[in-house]
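Form 7-S
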Amino acid sequence: LQPNWPEPIIDLGLLEMQAGRDAEAKAALERATQLDPFNIRAKNSLTLVNEVMGFESIETDNFLIRYKPGIDGVMAREMPPLLEQMHEDVTTSMDFDPDGRTIVELMPDHASFSVRITGEAHIYTMAASTGPLMAMEAPKVGKGVTAIYDWLRVVRHEYTHTVTLAKTNNRIPIWFTEAAAVFMEHGPRDYDKCRLIAQALANNAMFDLTRLNLAFTRPAERPLAYAQANFMYDYILERWGPEAPLRMMEAYGAGKREAQVVSEVLGITPTALLDDFKAWGWERVREWGMAAEPSLDGLRLRETLADEELGEALMRSLKEFAIETGVRADMGAFPPRFEPTLADVTPELVAYWYEMHPDNPDVVELMIHLRLRENGGEPTAEMAPLLEAYAALRPVDPMPHRHLARVYLREGRAEAAVPHLEFLDVREVWADTYAIELAKLHAEAGRWDLATAKAERATHISPFDPANREVAARVALGRKDLDTAERHLRALVELEPNQKRHIERLEALLRLRAG
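Output:
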């Protein structure tokens, strides 16, 4: 109706970009930039789409992988079997197989990934799904890239969005698609999310279903929104079984509203659902060792009241707060805005509390920090029993496992370090440190299958790191897996073409295979 109005044409070009229809996107963006040559999103997107149209591609049964020619091909050529295995896992769990191939684009840097998704050069994440297209930043170390990361776990999250959006005709609530996507990552809940959940339950700050959807749009509330959504998905699975989320998705796809879906599928009102969920959540928080009794505040309150001067000051401040605000407080639960002055936590007090409450995880944690401070921040062998005790009392905290792994490795007790490194590795998204160390330890012990799994995981997290490829190739040779060894040696030749030893090793391997 208004052919010289650029806004609809810009939006059309950006939507075509997100749909992965490059030719259509290029046509719209060329027209848009003619009408408005100063629009940054359109200009960025047109520059990128011209570049993307020169990408190389790999087709599999369910994916079209596109990547910039050059070093990114090292990673791209390893993606097909991993993506197909992921496809089988996600579609089986969600009981739905989307039509056609999903486009997976491996972008060479953060700016190109961001432009692919939004038209702007920076967004806060490193992978995103827009339904038919998943774009991801290559996990590299260097200028212009975000970081190395467990790309397979991240893409499994994004592909779950692709599947659940298609299954529900794009009608799934944001909290539910995010909950399913985090569930399909197949990783334990990290400690920060456990703490968010425990704090929200303690402060009666859990969102209802309407507020939960809105919280995803608010940066300050988004971390709790992710944590609560996934926690609720676990709750639904435990209370109603694995078919319940699938039936809910079918109801969403049919156009039913949230309250109707909850009532029909789960047989409970949204209000009752939230109440039952919070009661269930408290059980989990206690299992995590994050509802210690007495609490640290309770212990400090006892010490405050036991001191005549501090006790009198506390009672005066309570009276003043009540007069000023009209809110009365008792000793069991201070109002949120009331910040009492409690007894200082001294080393002597920590030692006394530990003697009186050796099974209180809050007190044991304080005792660990006290010992670390005395030792200049270094864990010692003498601290091992204390660290092991805390790990049992609060099984979600990675802190004791980090210290125990350091202690046991320093003492040459590799076998004792392995379970702690395993605990850390399955929770790690941003570093290959634990995986590569485990690969070496398992290889030294002759556990070749376990060594292979960890070496491959290290090359997934940091696929362009020659050191990881060296370890993976050695492990493959130790296992007598010549195909895998050849793959990593060929990658080394591409990553470090000037290193003659890589070519010599590859040639030696090829002679061995020929013989």
